[in-house]
Amino acid sequence: MTLTILEGSTFCICDDLGDIGTEETSGFFHEDVRHLSRLRLTINGEPPLLLAAKKVEYFSAAFYLRNPVLDGLAQDSLLIARERFVGEAMQDRIRVWNETLEPVVFELALELAADFADMFTVKDRDFALGNPERARPLPPPAEAFWDADHNQVLFSDPDPSWNEHTQVIVSRPAEANGAGLVYRIELEPRAEWKLVVDVVPTRGGDPVRPPEIEGRFGHELAHVRESLAAWELRVPQLRATWDALQHAFGQSVADLAALRLRSNGDQGKLPAAGMPWFMTVFGRDTIVASLQTLLFGPELARAALCQLAELQADAVDAAIDAEPGKIVHEVRTGKTASVWFERYYGTVDATPLYLILLSEVWRWTDDLLLVRELHEPALKALRWIDEHGDRDGDGFVEYERRTPRGLANQSWKDSGDSQRFADGRFAQAPIAPCEVQGYVYDAKRRTAELAREVWRDRELAGRLEAEADELRRRFDEAFWVEGRGGHYALALDADKRPVDALTSNIGHLLWSGIVPPERVDAVVDALMGEALWSGWGVRTMSSEDAAYNPLSYHNGSVWPHDNSLIAAGLARQGRWREAQRIARRMLEASAFFGHQLPEVFAGLRRSDTPFPVPYPTAARPQAWAAGTPVLLLQLLLGLVPDPRLHTLTTVAPPELPAWAGSVRLTGVRAFDAQWEIRLEEGTVNVEELE
C-alpha cells in the first residue's frame, strides 16, 4: 500500500511501513524535486512487520510496526511507532518499546539516499502515468556527508547550478555507515526509546543550522493544524440523511483542504490540480475547482483570480505558447521547469473561464473592489480572446501549439487522441472546441454585466452583448450536426469541418447558455441517451463512435467534474430530473471509491458492472473531482445568489425526490452574511442567520 501526505507543494510518497525507496516513484519531494529517494528503517538488518498504517490528516501519517523473529530477539518483543509530519520540511518521530519482561539488545538502522531527481523523471517511472521504458535514467544518489558535530547527514546535488541540498538531522548521536545511520540499543523491560528525524530541503542557499530546526518544526506543525482547523470552521456544516451525500461532502472538505497551495504574497490559498504529481497551479483545473466550490466561500476563488492575474502572459512567446492576456496552463519550478516549462500557456479555455470565475465571485459577494482591481487583467483576457484566441478571424477561438514540446490538444480533453471524427479519424489543428465557444459566449455576457454594474462602461457592455449574440448565431450554424437526433460537433477542424463525434462536451454548452431554446431538447436527449449515459454518469464519447473505448482517457470514460458541469447546464435549462439523476448516480458512485471521487473512471454500463470500474491512472484526490460533490449539492438545493438584492435564493423545483432525504446546510456565506438551507419533505428553504 502506498501512502501520500502533503502540505502545499511538499509531499512524501512511502509504503505502509513508512519506508521510502521500495518503489522507484516514492520519495520526499519539495518544489518539484525529490530531496530524499531512500529512507528505510531496519531492526537487526530486517524491515519490521506491519501492524497498521494510516493517514491521520492530509499532512500526517502514523505507522505501527513489530519486529520479526531475529537472532536474540523474539517476535513481538518490540512495538515500533513512526509518526510523520510534512510541512515545508518533513519530520519523523520514531518510538520503540520493549514489550517484554526481559532486557533486549538490538540494532536500529536508517538507510538514506537523495538523488535530486526532477518530478517528471520520477513520474515517468510509473507505468500508469509515464513510459518507464523510454524514461530518462534516474540520477545516481548524491554523496552523503556525516556531520557528527550537528548529528546530521548532508546531501548536495552534484550539479552545482541547482544548489539543492537535503539535511537529515537526528536527535541522537549515531554511528555513520556511508549514507546510513546505526543505533545499538539496549532497552530495559517496558522501556521506551525515542528518535526525531528532521528532513530539511533547501534551494539556492546554505543548509540550515540544526539548532534552528526544532523550533521551526513546532511552529510549522501548529501553523498547519491551525490552518486546517480554520478551514473546517469556515466551510458550511452539513447534516444529511442520505449517507452518500454526507460522506462525499465531508471527503470533499478534507480533500480540498489538502489541495490548497500557498499563493505568492498574502493572497491566501488556491486549489492545486491533484495529488501527488500535480500539486501546482493549473489554470483550467484551478479555475473550475474554484467555480465548483463557491459554496465554501470566496477565498479559494479570490486567491486563484489574483494569482492567475499575476501569471497572465504579457508578450508573444511561441516557445511557451504564450500571447498577451492569456491565462497560464501550468507552473513548475527548479529542475522540473528545465525539462518541461517554468510557465506554460498551452490552454485554450482557461482565459474565458477566468472571466467566468471573476463574474461568479462577484455574483456571490458583490465584491466591487476585487472586480475593480482585476479590471485590467479582465480587459487583457478579452483582448486575447478576440486577437489571439481567434487565430484566423472567423469569430471562433481555436488552438494550435507552436512549441513542439507543448500539448497537441489544448482543451480540457488534452490527451493526444481526443479530437476524433465519428468514424475515428483524427482532427487536424487548428481546432476550435465546441465548449470553448460556449465559454467565450458566457464570458462576454458576464463581463458585459460587470462592465455595466461595476466599471460603469456601458459602451463595452453593449459591444460584448452584441458580440455574444452574434457568436451564438454563428456557432449554431457552424457546429450543428444533423443525424442521431441532432447534436453539436466536438469541434471544427483546420478546414472548418464539424468534428462530428458525439461527446460530453455538448453538456458544457448548456452550462454556458449558448444553446438556443429550440435545440435544448435534442442536446438533453443526446446526453441522457444510451450511447452517452453509462448509468453512472455521462461518458466523454458515445458508444456509437468508432474511437469509443470505456477505458480511454477521453474517449469513453466518465469524468466527475465533466458531469458536474453538465448537471449545472441541465439545471440552468430547468431540466431538473436529468440534473438530479446525474447527482444521484455520481454520489452513489463515490461510495465505491471510499466517497472520494477519482479524476476519472471507466465508462462501462452500470447494468453490466455492480460497481464503477476504476481507471488506473486517475489522480485521487484531484481538485475538480473533489469539487464535484460540492457543486452537485448546490445544484440539488437550487442555490443561486442575487447580487442586486444581496440574497441567496433557491430555484429548486417544489418537490425534490425522496432519495435526497433531508438536508441541513449551515454557514453558507454570501454577501457578508451567513445562510442556512434546509431540505425537508422535498422542499428547500433558505434563511439568513442572525
Which regions have little confidence, pLDDT < 50, spanning 5+ residues? Answer: none
Radius of gyration, in Å, reads 27 Å
Specify the overall morphology. globular
Number of domains: 2
List the total number of helices.
Answer: 17
**Straight-line distance between termini:** 48 Å
**What does the main sheet amount to?**
8 strands, antiparallel
**CATH fold node name of the largest domain:** Glycosyltransferase
Strand order in space, largest sheet: 6-7-8-9-16-13-12-11
Brief description of this entry?
32% of the residues lie in helices and 24% in strands. The protein is an alpha+beta fold and 690 residues long. It has an eight-stranded antiparallel beta sheet with strand order 6-7-8-9-16-13-12-11, with helices on one face.
Give an overview in words.
This protein is of the alpha+beta class and 690 residues long. A hairpin with a 7-residue loop joins strand 12 and strand 13 (164-170). It starts with a strand and ends with a strand. Helix 3 (243-258) packs across helix 15, helix 4 runs antiparallel to helix 5 and helix 7 (350-365) packs antiparallel against helix 9. It is globular, with a radius of gyration of 27 Å. The protein folds into 2 domains: 2-225, Distorted Sandwich (Beta-galactosidase, Chain A, domain 5), CATH 2.70.98; 235-688, Glycosyltransferase (Alpha/alpha barrel), CATH 1.50.10. It has an 8-stranded antiparallel β-sheet with strand order 6-7-8-9-16-13-12-11, covered by helices on one side. A 4-stranded antiparallel β-sheet has the order 1-2-3-4. A 4-stranded antiparallel β-sheet has the order 5-10-15-14, with no helix packed on it. The chain has 17 helices and 31 strands.
